[in-house]
Structure formats: structure tokens, C-alpha cells
């Protein structure tokens, strides 16, 4: 829902200001599925809104639900025909996290990522970004209705879908403002996380503009040589530049940062890799503010693209122990949604 368009519509139709609040409440708090449901408005006004405004900026093409019901993926068709994917995950029963996309495709070209293989098509508007959250709110409401249960809420938002948030910062920052606006979505800043492949200037901007929003960094390699090979971003923002960006981030925010590390068999999962990773973490300092998440690689195609395979569970466990030998604590994250290709790095259109 484009709030500015709604405001203009009300102005052009000489409607009083309180109407805006009424409509916003109906859509964002009560989860109305259409303007015609907003019965506090006259029938004539509702019909006019239906013909001139749109509640969601896309059509639903397909929804896939994993067998355990803990992850759901939607394929959405934007007004120009472009397709994006968005995911809803329940890391714990009843706690839903919306993983949203900010671009159609991505220019960053990370070799282990299905989105990266698509190349970049276009940025999403702030409306297209926040509509994914509106879509999941509506989905949960419908789900509850069909199961005759109390509706569950989207609790957290992660910008970890398709695209690099710092490559579309104007729209991403506007979407964050809307998501945290109490008259609109009303999310707390701390329930929103932005994930980057490691754009140093973006990290600095986010620290200044949104110090309370969580930051996650796709680190994946602690050697420039390997990172250069698998993550082209490293040629511009290498580990040294990432280290300095993180130091600056801590100075401004003093907040925890999540470092994501996908475990690739035989590529970044050796004892030497663990040692290099520990050295990198210690070189940043503020180690109490850095949290390592180890995630076994999710295959993007079968047969595996570029020969990339996930590290085995045993090897992942050994890697974690190696890190602990160097006093670095890490959590092995369970990937949800692999079966419906909704896990990290698997989104494409
Ligand atoms: S991992 Fe993120 S930044 Fe890298 S190509 Fe995929 S979507 Fe883009």
C-alpha cells in the first residue's frame, strides 16, 4: 500500500484528515483484505478506492508450504511482470519471521546464491518491500480463519531475501521507516534485521540512520583470496575494509552484529579456516558484540552448481569446536525451508 498515494487520493477527494487514520488502522492493524471491507467508509468511497487504488502492489502466483508447516514461500508477480520470492519462517511455533526481498535479482554475484545467478533486474520500491509484510500478515489471518484458530502475528522482519539492501538503500530505508511507524506496521526497531554481503559504506550509513536495527553480515570466508573468488563484493570491500566498517559500527551503536558463515564442504570448513576466522574476529575487537552463525550450505541446484556441497554435520560440528578452541563461540543454525527452496541463498524467480 502506497501511503503517499493514499494521502493524495484523500486530498484530491476533499476528504477529512481523520479518514487517513481510519483507513490505515483498517489495513495495517485490522488486516483488511480489500477497501470494500472498510465499513467505516461510505459505499461510494469504498468503490472509488477499489477502482483507483491498490492494496498490494503484486499478484500471488504461487504459495508453497513445507511439510512441517514451518516455512512458506510465495512467488509474487509485480505490476510490470517481474517476479520475486518472499518467505515466512517459524523458527519456534507461533513465532513468525518474514524474510523479504528488496530487489529483483541481485548484482552482487555471490557464487553460492541462486539470486546472484539471476543477475540484477531492478530495485523494489518501498511499497513493494513493505507489501511483502502486509501479504504475510494477511496470509496468517486467512490461515487462522481456515484452521479456526487465533491469528498469529509476524514478529520479526529480516532483509535476507533477494537483493543487497545497501544497493537499494533509499527504498530500503523508507520501508524501514514505514515498518517502524506506529500508525502503520508498528514494528520495534529491534525486531528488524538487515543483512549485507559486506558493503562498508552501507554499514556506516545504517549505523548513523538506524542504530537500533539489527545488522547481519554474510562473511562466509576469512581469507581475501577465497572471499574474492566466491563473493565479488570483496574486491571492492575486502576484509580490512569490513573490519574498519565494523569497528566504526560498534563505536556508534555498541550493538551486537551477526556474522553469517555458510559451511561449504572442503572450501571454508578446515581447521585453518577456523583459525583464520578467529584471527579476523579478534582483529575487529569488541568480540562480545560479534555473534557467529554457522549455516550448512543450501544447495541451489541439483546437480550442485560449481561443485558446491554443504559441509557434513560432523564437519560443521568439528569446525565449531575448532572455533571454540580459539575462544570464539558460534551457533549452528538449522536451515528452514530447504525442501521448498526457501532457505538462505535459494531464492530466485
Ligand atoms: S547472497 Fe545476497 S548479496 Fe549475494 S548474490 Fe545473493 S542476494 Fe545478492
Structure description:
The chain has twelve helices and twelve strands. With 349 residues, the protein is α/β, with parallel strands linked by helices. It folds into two domains: 3-52, DNA polymerase, domain 1 (Orthogonal Bundle); 58-340, TIM Barrel (Alpha-Beta Barrel). Strand 7, helix 6 (169-180) and strand 8 (192-196) form a beta-alpha-beta unit. The protein is elongated. Bound molecules: iron/sulfur cluster. Residues 106, 108-110, 113, 115-116, 162-164, 197, 218, 345 line the site of iron/sulfur cluster (SF4).
Keywords:
TIM Barrel, 21% strand, binds iron/sulfur cluster, 349 residues, two-stranded antiparallel sheet, DNA polymerase, domain 1, ten-stranded mixed sheet, 12 helices, alpha/beta, elongated
Structural class: alpha/beta
Mean pLDDT: 93
Q: Sketch the topology as an H/E string, one letter per element.
A: HHHEEEEEHEHEHEHEHHHEHEHE
Low-pLDDT ranges: none
- What's the tally of helices? 12
The CATH topology of the largest domain is given as: TIM Barrel
Using the coordinates above, name the CATH class of the largest domain. Answer: Alpha Beta
Amino acid at each position: 500500500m502506497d501511503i503517499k498515494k493514499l494521502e493524495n487520493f484523500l486530498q484530491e477527494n476533499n476528504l477529512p484528515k481523520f479518514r487517513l487514520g481510519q483507513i490505515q488502522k483498517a489495513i495495517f492493524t485490522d488486516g483488511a483484505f480489500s477497501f470494500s471491507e472498510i465499513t467505516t467508509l461510505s459505499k461510494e468511497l469504498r468503490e472509488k478506492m477499489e477502482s483507483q487504488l491498490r492494496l498490494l502492489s503484486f499478484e500471488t502466483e504461487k504459495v508453497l508450504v513445507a511439510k512441517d508447516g514451518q516455512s512458506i514461500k510465495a512467488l509474487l508477480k509485480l505490476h510490470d511482470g517481474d517476479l520475486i520470492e518472499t518467505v515466512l519462517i517459524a523458527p519456534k511455533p507461533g513465532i513468525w519471521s518474514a524474510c523479504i526481498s528488496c530487489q529483483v535479482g541481485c548484482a552482487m554475484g555471490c557464487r553460492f546464491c541462486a539470486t546472484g545467478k539471476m543477475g540484477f533486474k531492478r530495485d523494489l520500491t518501498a511499497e513493494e518491500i513493505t507489501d511483502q509484510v502486509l501479504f504475510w500478515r494477511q496470509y496468517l489471518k486467512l490461515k487462522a480463519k481456515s484452521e479456526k484458530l487465533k491469528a498469529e502475528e509476524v514478529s520479526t522482519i529480516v532483509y535476507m531475501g533477494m537483493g543487497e539492501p545497501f544497493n537499494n538503500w533509499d527504498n530500503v530505508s523508507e520501508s524501514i521507516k514505514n515498518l517502524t511507524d506506529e500508525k502503520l506496521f508498528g514494528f520495534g526497531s529491534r525486531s528488524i534485521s538487515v543483512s549485507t554481503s559486506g558493503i562498508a559504506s552501507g554499514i556506516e550509513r545504517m549505523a548513523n540512520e538506524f542504530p537500533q536495527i539489527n545488522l547481519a553480515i554474510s562473511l562466509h570466508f576469512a581469507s581475501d583470496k577465497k572471499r574474492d573468488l566466491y563473493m565479488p563484493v570483496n574486491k571492492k570491500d575486502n576484509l580490512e575494509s569490513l573490519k574498519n566498517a565494523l569497528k566504526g559500527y560498534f563505536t556508534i551503536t555498541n550493538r551486537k552484529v551477526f556474522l553469517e558463515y555458510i559451511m561449504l564442504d572442503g572450501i571454508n570448513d578446515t581447521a585453518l579456516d577456523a583459525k583464520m576466522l578467529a584471527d579476523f574476529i579478534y582483529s575487529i575487537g569488541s568480540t562480545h558484540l560479534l555473534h557467529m552463525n554457522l549455516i550448512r550450505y543450501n544447495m541451489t541446484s541439483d546437480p550442485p552448481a560449481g561443485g558446491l556441497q554443504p559441509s557434513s554435520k560432523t564437519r560443521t560440528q568439528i569446525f565449531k569446536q575448532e572455533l571454540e578452541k580459539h575462544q570464539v563461540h558460534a551457533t549452528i543454525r538449522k536451515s528452514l525451508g530447504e525442501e521448498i527452496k526457501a532457505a538462505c541463498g535459494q531464492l530466485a524467480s
